[in-house]
Amino acid sequence: MDNAIIIGAGPAGLTAAVTCAEKGLDVVVIDEYMRAGGRLLGQLYEEPNGNWWNGIKESNKLYEKAVDLGVNFHLNTAVNNIENSNGIWTIYTERETFHTPSLLLATGAAEAPVPVPGWTLPGVMSVGAAQVMTNVHRVKPGERGVIIGVNVLSAAIAMELQLAGVEVASLTLPKTNQVTQDAGKPKEVLDSLLHVSHMAPSPFVRYGSKLMKNDFMKKLGVNFFPKKGVKMWDIPIQLRKAVTKIYGEDEVEGVTLATINADGEVVSGSEEHIPVDFVCIAGGLYPLAELAAVAGCPFYLVEELGGYVPLHNERMESPLEGLYVAGNITGIEGAKVAAAQGRTAGLSMAHHAGMDDLDGEIKNSIKRTEQTRDNAHIQFHPEIETGRKKILQQWDAYQSNKERSVVSNSRGGIT
Amino acid sequence: MKEDEMIICRCEEVSYEELKTTAAKYKCSARELKLRTRAGMGYCGGRSCRTMVDKIAATSANDRNRTCVSLKYQPPIRPISFKNLGG
Question: Which one of B69, B73, B82, B85 would you mutate to disrupt binding with A, by most A Cβ within 10 Å of its Cβ?
Answer without folding.
Answer: B69
